[in-house]
Amino acid sequence: MRAQLESLLHHQWDRRGPISWLLLPFSGLFMLGATIKRRRTVSKKLPVPVVVVGNIYVGGTGKTPVTIALVKALQENGWNPGVISRGYKGNTEEPIEVLDNSNPDVVGDEPLLIKKSTHVPTFVCPKRISAGQELLKKYPSVDVIISDDGLQHYELARDIELAVVGARGLGNRWVLPAGPLRESPSRLSQVDAIVLNATDDIIFSSKPRFAATSGLRTCYSYSSGEEYNLDTLARMQFKKELKAIGVAGIAVPERFFSMLRAHDLNIEELALPDHYDFDKNPFAKLDADLIFITEKDAVKCRKHPEIKNDPRIFVVPLEMVLDKHLIDFVIQKLNYNKRKDI
Q1: What is the pTM of this model?
Q2: Domain spanning 9-213+321-341: which CATH class is it, in words?
């Protein structure tokens, strides 16, 4: 039910319909409150450069896959990055390190996915400055911090801001609650660069923009860890007439389902709410031979032995590729800031 409500809400935010017009006065109050809070906030600087990967659209735009890809790119170019995050839906108020075996209910699903994908020092805390300070205290060799989300967390000073615009674009371009935006579209003229992730929305900004491309290629059995090519599974499904279901608890599950179908997999769909907690096993009563889930969901499923040992489940990692010019752009700015601080 919650997934349907989320879909309905975003559908309303796609246009300037009657409901949005009725809510528009409250958007003015929201903007006023956000402006006052920003002006009163004193930013604190960490001793290493900070890159914020965020967005102005409420909900998922692909920030975490972009963060993972950026971390890997920086590592390949000789940097030693660390990651900080709020830890959405986690239950910690103090800085805590994310480990491979951390409980996603404590640290959040996305930070755990980042840790498992990159193996770099990762800390979470609602106060990003505290997370950064703890990270550097324990890992003093870290020379750049990537903040997953936090574009609106102005307490943390940042050297580079990357705004990710996802598949839903900017919706009706109004701020909450009349629209889906946390800040006015004009905010995109203040960031350092815009990352376009599967969107054809027209973005009005003088700032450079770069494309991020994503796709699916391989998957692995959740129970055995054995890796498979999606095209191979599609051929097996056709020959053996297997029934397949795609399951996703992410912001735009339709993209995941479309990507699976692009590999000729014939799937039914089960959309779960974004950040679904898997307190209940949604797979137990599914009539399916193959079940495909996202990596973001997989990090939360392991708390259920019956899910972890279900041979029908295959985890499909999202492969994000950043524009090489974006990587060069970030590294150039990092090197400039490093020289400036010397």
Answers
A1: 0.91
A2: alpha beta
